[in-house]
Amino acid sequence: MENDLSNYRKIYKKSELSIKEVPENPIELFQKWFFEVEEFGGDIEANAMTVSTLGIDGFPNNRIVLLKKYTWEGFIFYTNYNSQKGKAIKQNPNVCLSFFWHNIERQVIIKGKAEKIAENLSDGYFESRPNGSKLGAWASDQSDVVSSRQFLDDRLASFEKKYENKEIPRPAHWGGYIVKPVSIEFWQGRPNRMHDRIRYSLQENFDWKIERLAP
Ligand SMILES: Cc1cc2nc3c(=O)[nH]c(=O)nc-3n(C[C@H](O)[C@H](O)[C@H](O)COP(=O)(O)O)c2cc1C
Known about the structure:
Layout: H1 26-40, E1 48-54, E2 60-70, E3 75-80, H2 84-91, E4 94-101, E5 106-116, H3 119-128, H4 131-139, H5 149-162, E6 174-188, E7 196-202, E8 208-213
Antiparallel strand pairs: 1-2, 1-4, 2-3, 3-6, 4-5, 5-6, 6-7, 7-8
Bound molecules: flavin mononucleotide.
Flavin mononucleotide binds near residues 66, 77, 84 and 143.
């Protein structure tokens, strides 16, 4: 079987990125791009990003998670600390995040170090989640092998019963990571595959070095 995809060809022409116009701090540019992606619209989950970790088996591992907050310090997502990604981060906190915003032909690639956020911040976010999601965090030992769907449904039912008419606390194994960036690349698709790529790299004095990369 084969499926030749060589005719998949798109001309990228929606925007440009000029090194003369970029701000000194990449978080500012991230914010500008994020707002533009939202404004541009279309069927897109703008905060969905790929998180890559170095797996304990030596392979890179990717998965999509939702970015829940960004600040001058970094990028925050929530997950199960005992999951495959949690174990990988414990062993090696170097991660890579990437976004593909196809509506406006942009990619952002962030390299950084992941660390757990303060417990009270995880509590605050957990509290804001719908009850169903809270119970899901209790019911799922994320990334473990399970015997069946029935097993999961039964686990959920047992936690529904346990917390019926009660406040649902945050499980200690569930919370946020902040990824503190050391480099951020902004990629804007351009015609003829001559895309714009601008990379920010964090220097020892905490200034950001800004360079253009060949596409
Ligand atoms: C659109 C989308 C959003 C997701 N958001 C999250 C998330 O915010 N947190 C999370 O732990 N998993 C999220 N997942 C599930 C992950 O992709 C992944 O299956 C899970 O975290 C287990 O990954 P691991 O076994 O590599 O640790 C999301 C998946 C998709 C497709």
